[in-house]
Amino acid sequence: MKKQFFIPIAMLCMAIGFSQNNTSYWQQHVDYTMDVKMDVNTFNYSGTQKLVYTNNSPDTLDRVFYHLYFNAFQPGSEMDIRLQTIKDPDRRMVNNLGTKQAPKYESRIAKLKPNEIGFIKVKSLKQDGKNLEYQIEGTVLEVKLNKPIPPGGKTTFDMVFDGQVPLQIRRSGRQSREGVELSMVQWYPKMAEYDFEGWHTSPYIAREFHQVWGNFDVKITLDKSYVVGGTGVLQNPNTVGHGYETTGSKVKRPKGKNLTWHFKAKNVLDFGWAADPDYIHDTMQVPDGPVLHFLYQDNPKYNENWKKLQPKTVAMMEFFEKNIGDYPWEQYSVIQGGDGGMEYAMFTLITGHRKFGSLVGVTAHELAHTWFQHLLATNESKHEWMDEGFTTFISTLCENEVMGNKDPNPLQGTYRGYRYLATSGIEHPQTTHADRYTLNGAYGTSAYSKGSIFLSQLGYVIGQDKLLQTIKKYYNDFRFKHPTPNDIKRTAEKVSGIHLDWYLTDWTKTTNTIDYAIDSVEDKGNTTKVTMKRIGLIPMPLDILVEFEDGSQMIYYTALARMRGEKENAYPNLKRKVLPDWAWGYPTYSFEIPKAKSAIKAIRIDPSGLMADIHTENNLYEKK
């Protein structure tokens, strides 16, 4: 039987609006004012930080915690030892002393010299003007408060700190392999998140983040030859220049070797920046949207790709705003730096020595993170699949459209990855903490591929139009609220009227699999009896396509009893027969087709390919 048609992926690109609902969520709030001076010769920096902390929780806080991420880049740190003990370490963070066939990995952190390590040292810390007691354990600073913060209360912390930028190994660092001087992310003492689950103080072992929204007022002083970009809106463009100056204005830089850059950002999770003396700085305006900034090293081999990327990024921004929701800030920057691709507030760091298609792909993915991480902001350490997976889903569709690809189902790659994971014996439930996966490969496929399938398969369960509505409503209802897995499930239930607790439970909390088969096709004279078998433990509703010898087709559909509802016909051009529900406790299910077996050419379970059945070869009956 030839490949059957797929549900048109273009349906996933529709934009459907919803009004915002009120929720009872509360969030902590931080206001940072920082003044930082960077020595670009030694890569040491000093800073002051004033942090006004607002306790919006119902709890009185007698302690607070900060993250000191740069401390991970020291020999003997948890990140270093994890690199040395995991079987498949991140290749960017190790040297291979063996061969490709017989690798022997060496941690790059373990080899750092004293002037190459990273650190953040707290010189002094005060609460409302009075010195505080504190202790540092690895990448976490624990602070005992002089005066507890009551519900609704505020307090001010004043800190003086020093830091050293490590050699570029993971995300942050100096002197990357592409020659970018400074990728400054996770670089300052950052207040840990406190939410309805309590404090989130996971050490930094190269995984993900959970962060507090706040406002940032940051001044960065460094050599005036460096061009800076990152979070926030530049407050002194005509003093700085470097492509930021307003139209028709003259740049008036102060005398001296250094220059101070002043940025402000409102209601963001983080503040990061990058700097290099060789950056080209281009801008492009999104119609009725933000200004896009592009900072990349002047390199004749790659400059044309970066120029071509710019209108594509405008198209990406428009795609995401249409299909998820509005981008709320004034600017977004695409900056060469880091070690691959990583999203930050109002900008991304990406490596720039890429072919054009790869450059577009990584930009689409990191830009999409703006919505699923920096606006919805699930706890990535606990629910990484909600960020990485949802981002993979929407950015794959975006890239397919922006690049004019003709792939009728661009999500097929995620299904291939998941099927390998599900049959390999290395899968963990998606409730596993991001740091606790046995293998990096198991983490990546679970977060990216299986996480993406959560949405694409949800569209199979509730209908593509309802999936589109769910994504829009989820964003409108939960942006700036740190949603949990139950929130996306309840949103889909409200939109579709279908019960979905079974779906969330089986897909994310177990390693159960989907496996349905056509068990038999029996000739009953003028009718044909089809018997199907459920082999896997995860139940699913089924679309069954029947193709007849005369060329006609028909869809038979059976919902799950526990769905308490049915999706609309996914194939509007075909007649559909709705069968009685198939309850999970019954391992087999039969139905009849009112035609002789000789009239039937083929029968296929799930012609869309959106159900993640791990053995699709038994989904098909073909007349021999």
Kindly list the characteristics that best describe this protein.
624 residues, Immunoglobulin-like, alpha+beta, five-stranded mixed sheet, disordered N terminus, eight-stranded mixed sheet, 10 helices
Give a structural overview:
The protein has 624 residues and is an alpha+beta fold. The N and C termini lie close together (10 Å). β6 (119-127) and β7 (130-131) form a beta hairpin. Among the domains are: 9-22 and 402-509, no CATH class; 28-212, Immunoglobulin-like; 516-622, Immunoglobulin-like, CATH 2.60.40. Helices cover 23% and strands 30% of the residues. It is built from 10 helices and 33 strands. An 8-stranded mixed beta sheet has the order 7-6-10-2-1-16-19-18, with no helix packed on it. Strands 21-22-23-25-24 form a 5-stranded mixed beta sheet, with helices on one face. Strands 30-29-28-32-33 form a 5-stranded mixed beta sheet, with no helix packed on it.
State the gist of this model.
By secondary structure, this protein is α+β, with helices and mostly antiparallel strands.
